């Protein structure tokens, strides 16, 4: 009887959206204990996503929350652009905190972007998590992988191998950790924020819940890559075929 894995996926309309969501929904079909929380970056829920979820056979929750435009900041400060998924992940956190009960519901929360590539084994690793589990992520930050670096003697995380600011308190990509639901439900103040410095979302969010010393290294002591930070090329689309949902 495994805890439920709450996989939180922000998603937004572009031509590859249905392809991306199909890829990850079919990965999730291979995971027995998953509850998929899909949050559309939109003022309303779209038929495209609704249809995909209905046809998926998954246990899911369909939400929406539009990223505010911040038009005034746009020219001066394009930094907010890098904060992708903030509004959507916070909406999912709110849903979890309003609909699940500390002590009664058992689970793990994973932030699962719609364009990454996931080996089903990463979800098996999550079943072992007591507080916060971490593992390597392929293809990120200018390296072929980012990974926690373990102390050979203690097996604990002592640092990070990361292409960008390995000195961050937690130099871990969104795809490289999952958090016990008890912690998410206890620290109701823990949210993502546009104020967090670019590239520090993960690090600041994790700081609410744990310390470097307490992290639980998974994926065979961080020697296996079970998730890749892939990015899909934007296709050239010059025409629309009528009557087809693509
Ligand atoms: N996303 C979103 N609205 C946006 C841009 C991105 O909801 O305007 C979602 C996207 O679908 C993905 C997550 O936020 O699930 C992270 O975005 P992206 O993959 O573009 O970020 P990157 O991989 O470049 O850091
Ligand atoms: Mn991405």
Automatic annotation (TrEMBL):
Residues bound to Mn(2+): 115
Binding site for UDP-alpha-D-glucuronate: 10-12, 41, 84, 89, 113-115, 229-231
Glycosylation sites: 221
Chief location: Golgi
EC number: 2.4.1.135
Pathway(s) per entry: Protein modification; protein glycosylation
Subcellular location: Golgi apparatus membrane
A molecular-function term among this protein's GO annotations: galactosylgalactosylxylosylprotein 3-beta-glucuronosyltransferase activity
GO cellular component: Golgi membrane
GO biological process: carbohydrate metabolic process; chondroitin sulfate proteoglycan biosynthetic process; skeletal muscle organ development
Keywords: Glycoprotein, Golgi apparatus, Manganese, Membrane, Metal-binding, Signal-anchor, Transferase, Transmembrane, Transmembrane helix
Site (Interaction with galactose moiety of substrate glycoprotein): 146
Topological relation to the membrane, as annotated: Single-pass type II membrane protein
UniProt cofactor(s): Mn(2+)
Residues annotated as catalytic: 202
Catalytic activity: 3-O-(beta-D-galactosyl-(1->3)-beta-D-galactosyl-(1->4)-beta-D-xylosyl)-L-seryl-[protein] + UDP-alpha-D-glucuronate = 3-O-(beta-D-GlcA-(1->3)-beta-D-Gal-(1->3)-beta-D-Gal-(1->4)-beta-D-Xyl)-L-seryl-[protein] + UDP + H(+)
Family named by the database record: Belongs to the glycosyltransferase 43 family.
The protein's name: Galactosylgalactosylxylosylprotein 3-beta-glucuronosyltransferase
Phylogenetic placement of the source organism: Eukaryota, Metazoa, Ecdysozoa, Arthropoda, Hexapoda
């Amino acid at each position: 009887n495994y805890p439920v894995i709450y996989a939180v996926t922000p998603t937004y309309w572009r031509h590859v959206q249905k392809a991306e969501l199909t890829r990850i929904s079919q990965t999730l079909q291979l995971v027995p204990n998953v509850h998929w929380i899909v949050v559309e970056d939109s003022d309303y829920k779209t038929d495209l996503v609704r249809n995909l979820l209905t046809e998926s056979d998954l246990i899911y929750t369909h939400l929406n929350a539009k990223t505010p435009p911040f038009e005034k900041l746009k020219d001066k400060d394009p930094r907010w652009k890098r904060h992708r998924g903030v509004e959507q992940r916070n909406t999912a956190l709110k849903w979890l905190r309003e609909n699940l009960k500390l002590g009664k519901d058992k689970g793990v929360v994973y932030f699962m972007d719609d364009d990454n590539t996931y080996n089903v084994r990463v979800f098996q690793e999550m079943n072992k998590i007591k507080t916060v589990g971490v593992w390597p992520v392929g293809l990120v930050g200018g390296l072929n992988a980012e990974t926690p670096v373990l102390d050979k003697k203690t097996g604990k995380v002592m640092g990070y191998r990361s292409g960008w600011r390995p000195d961050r308190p937690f130099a871990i990509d969104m795809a490289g950790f999952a958090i016990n639901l008890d912690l998410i439900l206890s620290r109701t103040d823990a949210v993502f924020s546009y104020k967090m410095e670019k590239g520090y979302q993960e690090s600041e969010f994790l700081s609410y819940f744990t310390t470097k010393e307490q992290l639980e290294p998974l994926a065979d002591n961080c020697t296996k890559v079970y998730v890749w930070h892939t990015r899909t090329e934007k296709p050239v689309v010059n025409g629309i075929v009528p009557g087809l949902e693509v």
